[in-house]
Design brief:
By secondary structure, the protein is mainly alpha-helical. It has helices spanning about 5-10, 20-30, 35-60, 65, 70-95, 100-120, 125-150, 165-200, 200-215, 220-255, 260-295, 300-320, 335-345, 385-390, 390-405, 410-430, 435-440, 450-505, 515-520, 525-530, and strands at about 330, 350-355, 370, 375-380. The chain is globular, with a radius of gyration of 28 Å.
Length: about 550
């Protein structure tokens, strides 16, 4: 690498004039209407909680008489101490009653199955869905608010002050705040939308409207389901369009990332819709056909179908689907190509193709990845990554990606995803023929397409927990891949590249610990540098 190139790429670390920094700090510190709304809601909730506490103290045991609506809460609170005291005894009784023989085990299993069937019969499905949906939304909103408060901070943590200028730190926080504002509004809109759809039975209405429009008379359920899928996808796309436009042409453009034109945006949207219909319609039809033909243990066959489809998509996405949106060219001969091929040879990686993709056509964000099965592996590098990092740094990133391959991380994550899908289908098999679930949402009969949609609402809290578990495993994988690249002798180069990418992508430099633990699939920058033992982390005060 030439001295001029080094100087050019190292200049990104310099501080801007102090006047610019101060102006940026004022932007980051300033709280707008959304922050006032958040503070108002939180204050209102505190006031309500205080009033409830005062009422409980003043009225005491008369509270349910004065306010009958508080009876369930009062009973729960009053009975809680007794429940806690009785817990050890209950556990002891359960342990004493444990099955001692195979016959007793079978009898216990049958009793539990009967209890579960009764529970599923009288369960208030609509109320449960609303409760689960709001609980998930409020939890994630709380995390987003915690992160937002962190983004209003204008002082750099000492851990990053030696290599992240204050200007860069403030620009990243400003970008994060704009994304946070959009996300909070989008999530609130989506939650209100979901609530209205559930409360006013919009799903069965759309189901009936599709049937009436197509003139099916309820006789061709698979065809009706495919048409319902197409209509629901179109409605979802239209409702999300304002947020997507604002994200692309306001937030991303304001912070220097967006390279798309309006024409390219809508061309991509049209292609995405066509792909959704082309791939989704046969999948929906196949899924329903499998359920119809395979009986009570359909979940095994449905899982096999989905596993096959996922493997197919992994194969065709980089070679068929992504080229519809981006241009792939062989990486030109030169120092970078030679270095990557030498690394692949050193690790006995079966590299067959080495591509450069025009990521800069849409955004200045950067990436690199490995794909392919068996002996047909390919490496793709974004042109933005080549512009932002040196040859050795890019090779370090490729070494990280090859670490994922060497340690079979992709295969393990795919296997975990398959277990999750099998769990989803098995749980769905428990309610697929439960008339009370369909009736709760205003549906006559038991159309499987709608049943699976309602079940996904019920599954949402568990799905969030499983996604958190997947994120935990993903972060462990990232640490291992970093260590692998470091073991190849690229530790310093990888750390330098991580810092540059953090700066170029304006990623959060100091995320809230709970927010990052729950939502991040990659560890925060400081944690990765700590794991690499990087000297950049020397303390330095503002």
């Amino acid at each position: 690498m030439s001295e001029a190139e080094s100087s050019s790429k190292g200049a990104r670390y310099g501080d801007d004039p102090e006047s610019t920094v101060d102006a940026q700090a004022r932007v980051v510190q300033q709280k707008g209407l959304l922050d006032d709304v958040i503070d108002g809601i939180q204050l209102g909730l505190l006031v309500i909680a205080f009033i409830c506490l005062v009422f409980a103290v003043v009225f005491g045991s008369s509270l349910p008489t004065v306010f009958p609506a508080t009876q369930p809460v009062y009973d729960f609170v009053v009975g809680l101490p007794e429940l806690v005291r009785a817990a050890p005894e209950c556990v002891a009784e359960l342990w004493a009653a444990r099955p001692q023989s195979l016959a007793e085990l079978e009898a216990t299993q049958a009793a539990l199955a009967a209890w579960l069937r009764d529970l599923l019969h009288w369960l208030p499905y609509k109320q449960c869905v609303l409760a689960f949906s709001w609980a998930t939304y409020l939890w994630e909103a709380k995390l987003n608010i915690r992160q937002r408060r962190q983004l209003h901070e204008v002082r750099r943590p000492q851990a990053i002050a030696s290599f992240i200028s204050r200007q860069v730190y403030l620009e990243a926080n400003a970008y994060g705040l704009d994304k946070s504002s959009l996300q909070l509004v989008k999530d609130a809109f989506g939650q209100v939308q979901t609530t209205l759809v559930i409360v006013y039975d919009a799903v069965p209405w759309l189901w009936a409207a599709v049937d009436a429009w197509a003139g099916l008379g309820g006789q061709h359920v698979i065809v009706q389901s495919v048409l319902f899928f197409a209509a629901a996808s179109l409605v979802s796309t239209v409702l999300a369009l304002p947020f997507d436009l604002y994200s692309t042409f306001v937030v991303e453009k304001r912070h220097g990332f967006n390279k798309q034109t309006v024409g390219l945006f809508f061309a991509d949207l049209a292609k995405s819709l066509m792909l959704t219909m082309a791939l989704g319609a046969p999948l929906v039809a196949g899924f329903l056909w499998v359920i119809e033909r395979t009986g009570a243990r359909f979940y095994l066959y449905a899982w096999a179908l989905m596993a096959g489809v996922q493997l197919l998509l992994i194969v065709i996405y980089p070679t068929v689907i992504q080229p519809l949106f981006n241009k792939f060219e062989p990486l030109p001969a030169g120092e970078l190509r030679t270095a990557i091929e030498a690394l692949a040879t050193r690790l006995q990686f079966p590299l067959t193709k080495l591509y450069m993709v025009d990521g800069s056509k849409r955004s200045s964000h950067s990436n690199a990845y490995v794909f392919g099965f068996f002996r047909a592996k390919r490496i793709v590098i974004y042109d933005t990554l080549i512009d932002q990092c040196t040859t050795d740094e890019i090779v370090a990133v490729v070494g990280h990606e090859l670490g994922h391959w060497q340690k079979s991380h992709t295969v393990r994550m795919l296997a975990m995803a398959q277990v999750q899908i099998l769990l989803i289908f098995f749980a769905f098999s428990c309610v697929i023929n439960e008339p009370s679930m369909y009736a709760s949402f205003g549906v006559a009969g038991t159309p499987v397409m709608l049943g699976f949609l309602f079940f996904q609402y019920l599954y949402e809290p568990l799905g969030s927990l499983l996604q958190f578990a997947m994120n935990v495993v993903s972060r462990i994988n990232e640490f291992q891949a970093d260590a692998f690249s470091q073991g190849l002798g690229y530790g310093e180069q990888l750390a330098s590249c991580l810092i540059k990418l953090q700066i170029e992508n304006k990623a959060a430099m100091n995320p809230d610990w709970l927010y990052s633990a729950y939502t991040y699939s990659h560890p925060p920058l400081v944690e990765r540098l700590n794991a690499l033992g990087n000297p950049h982390l020397a303390s330095k005060k503002e």
